Amino acid sequence: MRHITTNHTPAPTIRGIADHSWQERGLCHGLPAKDIDELFFHAARNRAAIDEAKAICGSCPVKKACFDYALDNEIRHGMWGGLTEDERRPWHARVNKRLEYSRVKAAFEGRDVHLSDAEREAVTRHAYVRGWSPERLAYALRLDLDWARDLMRNAAHAVADRDRYWGQVDEAEAADDEYVEDENAEDAASPVQVPRQVQTHALIAALRKAA
Question: Fewer beta carbons under 10 A from the terminal one: N or C of the chain?
Answer without folding.
Answer: N
